[in-house]
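Practice record 12: protein with 2'-deoxycytidine-5'-monophosphate.
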Amino acid sequence: MIIAIDGPAASGKGTLGKRLAAHYKLRHLDTGLLYRAVAKALLDAGHPPSDRARAIAAAQAIDPARFDEAALKQYEVGEAASVVSAIPEVRAALFNLQQEFAAAPPGAVLDGRDIGTVICPNAEVKIFVTASAEQRARRRTLELQGRGERADEAAVLADILARDQRDRSRAAAPLLQAADAHLLDTTHLDIDAAFRAAVAIVEAARAG
Ligand code: DC
């Protein structure tokens, strides 16, 4: 079984993906980490994320086995990832890796922006996770503060709105709800309630 989860920044799709994978004993790939790794390679070398040639070369060279997830989850890496992910050749360089991950038995949960539309259009279950921008900003601020990072909620909200706009309006594989994806709005749900709602979607899809 392949479960495709898409949604905007800080919608909770990563946490849901992890829990669904554990529940159904599937492998899990947070595809945002791939774009974050490309962005971090550029930032670490002192190059802007808009440097196309270097971003493409970095995408061709990434090795998920060596990812430092905590470092990739840093705020500025996410912002830079949104920039490199708009480069079509970067997306193309990461395409096979994602498809191969999804295809290997016993199946997988992938979360990102274009899983249900581009990477796994034939996934058995597609969930589009969303929440209001204000709620996502609140959650992301608390998460950053919990990690000891300085975060101002108004600034985080402004960044989330800008990132939504960039991820939705780019020409290459924009953030989009697939026609056959189930919408899961977590604005008023805590993580346990969101997980139960996601399991209900999976069970209904499996029952046909
Ligand atoms: O989900 P995230 O915050 O880790 O993603 C970081 C950026 O990577 C996001 O702003 C857009 C990009 N991304 C993408 O374009 N396609 C994906 N499948 C996953 C992430």
